[in-house]
Automatic annotation (TrEMBL):
Lineage: Bacteria, Pseudomonadati, Thermodesulfobacteriota, Desulfobacteria, Desulfobacterales
GO cellular component, one term: cytoplasm
Keyword hit for Cytoplasm: yes
Reaction catalyzed: IMP + L-aspartate + GTP = N(6)-(1,2-dicarboxyethyl)-AMP + GDP + phosphate + 2 H(+)
Name of the coding gene: purA
PANTHER family: ADENYLOSUCCINATE SYNTHETASE
Annotated HAMAP family: Adenylosucc_synth
The protein's name: Adenylosuccinate synthetase
Length: 429
């Protein structure tokens, strides 16, 4: 029996969707525990690409999928995604896709406020997706949110909407100078969605704990990455939830003693979407090479990802924050063709070397990466399916990551397809 948390170690976009899809073959249940449809997980099966934003990646393997209480859910997006997957022949029935009755609902005013804030900030904008994630978490924290248990109860939903909408409209009209929203229109739209989704709403904590008690294997799927965590990331250039592994317990309703391991997904280089500090970012032809060869565009926004060398300061920060027990290295094939690779092993700040990640962004902005240089490789490794067939220089790069992080590499990905993956040690046993 093994219950494993899959976590991103960088700023998201590490390839978690592929790893969850792969491991779901050996799991019974997959649980999404935080974030919203501001995340996108891309999976490629038999050459066909599927992108999910809310539905856990295990859906393609026909597993029981749960959206936990820690997720903020746009019901319209969830229905669109269910229809999209159903159109591909993927079952999305109440028996295999459930959403927690305690999950928070993203309302239309959340999205309007999100977009209005970014518009007002202009060049100082944070770079949110405009999907209402932050404002939904705000209402959760101030106890003014709408949960799925409320959404599917017409009396409760209409009372809550009548209570909060005047305040939201006042904010939109008089602060942002945007048009107010119609209570009747929202009520009609969301009531129809509530009827559609009601059969899928359940106590997800009871379901997942019952599955574990029965000896079933559970994967807990995170969104974004460690350094977008609202507490531990590059605040304020972060997401609005805790992305670290500890939140799997809070966001799914399980105790910490239920977790058997944490797999950290690491891109073989580093990328970031949107604004915020990025010490190892490249502004040269090598960065362009990574961006083009790696097709580095956000799965949710389509925005170009910034690219840079692998940063061990942030990886080791992720090791500590998440208690990583294994690493999954993705997009290793993208580095093929580079004669020389660099690994950031520290930051130089005012003449001193730092090996920990500073909270002060002004300090971080003045940090210069300290690099270790290692030989690259010319070979195309995307067709290699065994570790012992990898070129020596590739294995030396992987060995160096293990040595610098102190965590074993368990999975290696050399392309987007399932069969372009080497499982050295299955964390599910």
């Amino acid at each position: 029996m093994a219950n494993i948390v899959i976590i991103g170690t960088q700023w998201g976009d590490e390839g978690k969707g592929k790893i969850v899809d792969l491991l779901a073959a050996d799991a019974d249940v997959v649980v999404r525990f935080q974030g919203g449809n501001n995340a996108g997980h891309t999976m490629v099966v038999n050459g066909e690409q599927t992108i999910s934003h809310l539905v856990p990646s295990g859906i393609l393997q026909g597993k029981m999928c749960l959206i936990g209480n820690g997720v903020v859910v746009d019901p319209g997006v969830l229905i669109e995604e269910m229809d999209y997957l159903s159109g591909k022949g993927v079952a999305c029935e109440p028996e295999n896709l459930m959403v927690s009755e305690r999950a928070q609902v993203i309302m239309p005013y959340h999205k309007e406020i999100d977009k209005a804030r970014e518009k007002q900030k202009g060049k100082d904008k944070i770079g949110t997706t405009g999907r209402g994630i932050g404002p939904a978490y705000e209402d959760k924290a101030t106890r003014r949110g709408v949960r799925f248990a409320d959404l599917i109860d017409p009396e409760v939903f209409n009372r809550k909407l009548a209570d909060i909408l005047p305040e939201k409209n006042f904010y939109l009209e008089h602060y942002f100078h945007e048009a107010p929203m119609s209570r009747e229109a929202i009520a009609e739209e969301y009531s129809a969605m509530a009827r559609r989704l009601a059969p899928h709403v359940t106590d997800a904590s009871v379901v997942v704990n019952s599955a574990m008690a029965a000896g079933r294997k559970v994967l807990f799927e995170g969104a974004q990455g460690t350094h977008l965590d609202i507490d531990h990331g590059t605040y304020p250039f972060v997401t609005s939830s805790n992305t670290v592994s500890g939140n799997a317990c809070c966001g799914a309703g399980v105790g910490p003693t239920r977790i058997d391991g944490v797999l950290g997904v690491v891109k073989a280089y580093t990328t970031r979407v949107g604004a915020g500090p990025f010490p190892s970012e490249l502004f040269d032809a090598v960065g362009d090479y990574m961006q083009e060869k790696g097709a580095e565009f956000g799965a949710t926004t389509g925005r170009r990802r910034r690219c840079g060398w692998l940063d061990m300061v942030i990886l080791n920060n992720a090791v500590r924050l998440n208690g990583l027990t294994g690493l999954a290295i993705t997009k290793l094939d993208v580095l093929g063709g580079l004669k020389e690779l660099k690994i950031c092993i520290g930051y130089r700040y005012k003449g001193k070397i730092m090996d920990t990640f500073p909270a002060n962004l002004h300090v971080l902005a003045e940090c210069e990466p300290v690099y270790e240089t290692i030989d690259g490789w010319e070979e195309d490794i995307s067709g290699i399916d065994r570790y012992d067939r990898l070129p020596d220089k590739v294995r030396r790069y992987l060995d160096r990551i293990e040595a610098l992080s102190g965590v074993p590499v368990q999975i290696i990905s050399v392309g987007p397809q399932r069969n372009q993956t080497m499982v050295l040690q299955n964390p599910l046993g």
